[in-house]
Structures are given as C-alpha cells and as structure tokens.
Design goal:
Elements lengths: L1 E6 L2 E7 L4 H20 L7 E10 L2 E8 L6 E5 L4 E7 L2 E2 L13 E10 L2 E8 L3 E9 L7 E9 L2 H10 L21 E7 L16 H18 L3 E5 L9 H10 L4 E8 L9 E6 L6 H10 L2 H4 L9 H4 L8 H18 L5 E9 L11 E8 L3 H7 L2 H27 L1
Parallel strand pairs: 3-7, 12-13, 12-14, 14-17, 15-16
Antiparallel strand pairs: 1-2, 3-4, 4-11, 5-6, 6-9, 8-9, 10-11, 15-17
Helix pairs in contact: 3-10, 8-10
Length: about 425
C-alpha cells in the first residue's frame, strides 16, 4: 500500500509498505495521524502589540509600539483634520487600556482597530501639518521585543500639501459585494447595523466600555429574538469588531433585499445627569440643535477611521436628501413611531424621543430606516444598564414588537 499527498495538483508519495490485517490497520492509523499534522501545519498567531509610547523631543515627536514579531507597514497622511495613518497586518492589540490616551507633542491622540480583514489601522490625530522624519523597525534587544518607530516633525501647510500631491495615489476603497443568504420566501428581511466598529470605536463610557461593543452585543441579541419568531430573516452589517464605511452599511442592507434597516448607537454628553433612549429618522432639517450636532458627529465616522474622502463625488460625500426618498422617509417615520411606543413600556426615553436629522447611514432611498440611540454612556446608571445582557434583552423585546407593528401596518396599507 502507498500513501500520497496531493498539493497544488502534484502527488507526493509519503509512505509505502506491504502489510495486512491488524498490522495494516495500525500502520494506516499512524499515517492518518501524521497526515493531520501535514494538513494543518504549524499554528499561526497574529503579531501581538503589547506596549505603546509617545515621546516629545525638541525637533520631533516619536511614536513607538512593541510588537512580538516583524511587521510590514504603510504610512500616509490625510488633511483637514490632519491625520497620520499607519496600516499594519492584522495584529492582536494587547496594549493596556488608556496607554497614551492624552497624547504628547504633535500627537493629540490615537485610535486603533481592525480596518478590514487582514489590515490593522492606527490613526494618529496631530496638532499641525507634519512629515515623517523617519520610520523603521528595530530588532529585539535589551529586553525589548521588535519595535516599530515613527518620528514626526512639524512642517508648513504648504509643505504638507506638496508632500500629499507627490505621494502615490491609491484607488478608493471599493464597496464590497456582501454575501447574501438566499431569500426565505415567507420571511421578511430586516437589516441590523451595529454602529461604529474596528478603528472607529464610537463613544466611550464612564468605565471605558466602547459604543462599538454595546451596539454589536445589542444587535446580536435583537437578531436572536427576531429570528426566534420564525417571521424574520436578519442580516447584520457587521458581525465582529471591524470598520465599515457608512455607504458599505447601506450597500449590505440593499444587497440583502432588506425591508427595514435599524442602526444601533449609544452616545455621551457633557451633562452626566442626562439619560434616555431616542429614535431618529432622516430629514433635510434637524429637529433641534442636539439632533444636528449628533448627526454631524456620526457622519464623521469615515474621517475618524482614516478614510480619504477627497476622491468621493459630491453626490456620495454629502448628505442631501433626494425627493425620491419621500415615500421611504414616510415609512421610516411610522417605523420610528412604533419603536418609540413599544420602547416606552420597557426603558426610559428622552423628552421628544422621536427626532430628525441628516444621518448619512439612513440614506438608503428604498429601505425604511431608523437610528436608535440606545442611551448615554456618560450617565452612570445607563452605562451599567447597557452593559447588562438582561437590559439588552428588554430593549430587543420592544424592538421586535415594533417591527411586528410596522409590518402589520404596511400590510394593511398595501391591501387598502
């Protein structure tokens, strides 16, 4: 008997012998065990980033991360606001929470997270136009791991823009065609959008919890409850901690044939006494200054993640509302009213709990859409509640009823 291993169309003889009976069975078992090792190979672990430091020097600011193995890197600048973007291979981020949060020197602060599968992004917010003076990787020595070092020096805006023009231009990140599950004919399709993610963490709670984690946990619970009814097929715009552009979220919902789009968020505010849930729908004119400010902040998610929006056409970059969306907007308003009504039985709502503003993520022209602000992470009690699975179950239960109410209403409307 001979055993072969097939690899890339080539057959390689691994072992050969003459045997019979129990001897053959034992030999085959040994070979099978060996083949498992051949097939799986050595376990691969992502490089681990364990420390981060920012140092201020008379002529530059130094940014350093300690990493367990060598990494490749790509660095580029973005203007208005000034940012330095560092792309690494996918890594495990094990830097202690709060490390260099306040920044030093030219660096005001940083954000980091999964930008796309295979790419880990660090975005440095800088005080002024800068130039990369040096960037290099140090080998392990004197008790240190590998170290990635980036030195930044301040330059004039004119020099910054000149460097920007001279840098190689990259094609804009394409909106991927998402995998779509086959439509189950007797089920309505609901798209759930956990806000933020990856390099865009969103708001931060009193004890350090991030909005992106609250929204993902809530979306998964709501998905579970909707599917448990047997009436709904649910698509998540993201199922893990990864960045998605606002337009990608809309594209995923539309590609899935979603009949309803619910975007989940949480917020912080300067006044720690304010709490309560609110529901937003799209409008050319904000219902109040708070709604306008919130929409403006949420619409900057792509900038926060280090996206270059200069290549976008005005039709994509702005948030003007097309008149063709009027019917969809009217359906969105009714969905919001049902949500407010059902949620009022379960959780505390803000005054004027249904509000209007120009949220870019609600721009799908043919999918009724609402944005649910689950509460304020800046309020001590609400921060704790949103981290509670029991509370998220209550929220989800009310939203399931709201979706039921909406489809009952829309069916009545269609029959009439």
């Amino acid at each position: 008997i001979s055993i072969y291993w097939a690899q890339h169309g080539t057959f390689i003889k691994l072992w050969s012998m003459k045997a019979g009976g129990s001897r053959l069975r034992g030999a085959l078992a040994a070979v099978a065990f060996a083949l498992v090792g051949v097939a799986s190979g050595p376990a691969h672990a992502d490089p681990k980033v364990t420390e981060l430091r920012i140092g201020e020097h008379p002529d530059m600011t130094r940014f350093v991360i300690d990493v367990s193995s060598p990494v490749t890197y790509k660095i580029f600048m973005l203007p208005d606001p000034y940012r330095v973007v560092i792309d690494l291979p996918e890594v495990t981020w094990a830097v202690p929470p709060g490390a260099s949060d306040s920044g030093r020197g030219l660096i005001k602060g940083y954000r980091t997270g999964l930008f796309a599968p295979g790419t880990w992004r660090i975005v440095l917010d800088v005080q002024a136009p800068v130039r990369v003076k040096k960037a290099f990787l140090l080998d392990p020595r004197e008790g240190h791991q590998y170290r990635f070092v980036l030195d930044l020096e301040q330059v004039t805006r004119e020099a910054f823009l000149q460097d920007l023009r001279a840098a190689p231009k990259e094609a804009p990140r394409a909106v991927p065609a998402p995998p779509v599950a086959p439509k189950v004919s007797d089920k309505r399709i609901v798209a759930l959008d956990p806000g933020h993610g990856g390099v865009d963490p969103g708001a931060r709670g009193r004890d350090g919890v991030y909005e992106k984690d609250i929204t993902l946990a809530t979306a998964k619970e709501l998905k579970r409850q909707l599917e448990a009814t047997g009436r709904y097929q649910v698509v998540l715009t993201r199922g893990r901690d990864v960045f998605l552009r606002l337009r990608e979220r809309i594209a995923i919902a539309r590609a899935a044939g979603a009949e309803v789009f619910i975007s989940l968020h949480a917020d912080t505010i300067a006044d720690p006494h304010i709490r309560g849930l609110s529901v937003y729908t799209l409008s050319e004119n904000a219902s109040d200054q708070e709604a306008e400010a919130l929409a403006s902040k949420e619409n900057k998610s792509d900038i926060i993640a280090g996206m270059d929006l200069n290549s976008e056409s005005p039709e994509v970059a702005n948030i003007l509302i097309d008149l063709a969306q009027r019917e969809t907007m009217n359906h969105s308003v009714n969905l919001a009213k049902f949500a407010v009504s059902e949620l009022s039985h379960e959780v505390k709502l803000l005054n004027r709990s249904h509000r209007f503003a120009g949220f870019a993520v609600l721009k799908a022209p043919d999918v009724p859409s609402i944005l649910v602000e689950l509460g304020y992470l800046s309020h001590r009690k609400e921060d704790k509640l949103l981290q509670s699975p029991a509370y998220r179950k209550r929220l989800s239960k009310a939203l399931v009823k709201a979706v039921d109410d909406y489809f009952s209403w829309s069916q009545t409307l269609t029959k009439s």
